[in-house]
Amino acid sequence: MDIKVLGAGCANCNKLEQMLVEVLTELNEKANVAHVRDFKKIASYGVMRTPALVINRQVKLTGLVPSKDKLKEIITSELMKRG
Q1: How far apart (Å, rounded) are the C-alpha atoms in residues 64 and 10?
Q2: I want to staple 51 with a disulfide (CB 3.0 to 4.6 A). Which of 7, 63, 80, 82 is the partner?
Q3: Would you kindly state where each structural domain of the chain is located, as residue ranges?
């Protein structure tokens, strides 16, 4: 699974990244996680509000830090897709 946190490095962007790592650890899943800070790259995803979460090249959320439970739900849903 390829996961990107999009954001310039603000507190919310960093919080999302930290929570993402925690959720992956709790689920005992490995993923390629990157924090994209370049505005041109962020815009290439069509994202206008950060933080944003991109999983396997699909934007899953923008402009907010979800609850940990919601983030876990998003990750679990993606894991189920891969079978």
Answers
A1: 12
A2: 7
A3: 2-82
Give buried/exposed letters for 53-75 (b at 16+ CB in 10 A, else e).
bbbeeeebbbeebbeeeebbebb
Sheet containing strand 58-62, edge to edge, reads: 32-36, 2-6, 52-55, 58-62
What number of other Cβ atoms are within 10 A of residue 43's Cβ? 11
What's the CATH fold of domain 2-82?
Glutaredoxin (3.40.30)
Model confidence, pTM: 0.93
Distance, CA of 26 to CA of 40 (rounded, Å):
33
What residues form DSSP beta bridges with 26? none
Structure tokens at 51: 């933080």
